[in-house]
Amino acid sequence: MHRVVPQYLLKEHISIENELIVESNEIKYLGVYFDSNLNFKKHIHTITCKINRLVGIFWKCRDLNIKTKLTMYHSLAASQINYGIIIWGSQLALNIIGDSSLNLARIPDNLDCLEVARKKNIRAIHRVPLRKKVDENNYIYTTTSPLFKDKNILKLKDVYYLHLALFAYDCVNGNVPEYFVNYLLTADTFCQRNLRSSNEQNQMNLLYFRFPNLMTTCKSIKIAAACLWNQLPHNIKSINNSKNIFKNEVRKWFISQY
After folding, report:
1. Are residues 107 and 140 in the same domain?
2. What is the C-alpha radius of gyration for the chain, rounded to an integer number of angstroms?
């Protein structure tokens, strides 16, 4: 079609040495599928398909104990979710701005299929059906929150929040490349006049960010990481001697809300 009626097509294209190069809607870069609208639907769909394949395996592996199944889950499923989630999961950042209760944040529509796939895996690992029979005519739907809490597994939104917190931790403690040295700055850098003896310590643990005018700007890592850091408890933000300790404390804080 580009050779016959290129003027009627909206896609951009160029010609080099009589070879027509057509604009692509998506491209895979470092294992992440980027599309023209940056909604990462292709990447999310790809991960969801990979995770859904494990559901039947977990249900059929009756002889494997839960510990072995969890090892399989973390190596085959969780690794796929953790990789690059701070980029392709940026739609979750819309829940952070102006929301003081992260545990009540909703899952965006484009990520809902992935969260459903994770819940199916957790149910299959524990062999807990979606509906449990109460009597002959009544059924109740089982919840997955106790299963996540029991095995210390974060929900999808909290996985994204955890990676944001780790990024903010690295920026605050100078464990980032030179480009990100001044990427996140403390609030006292911009609010020297507002410091008081009573709240000086709290101000020192806050990161500065300007409230965005556009909703799409909320998905910026710079804004999302700063806003999430400010919502963490003060005792967690004060940890600066070990990243692993900080990570474990943040994980415990999220799971305690299940």
Report:
1. yes
2. 22
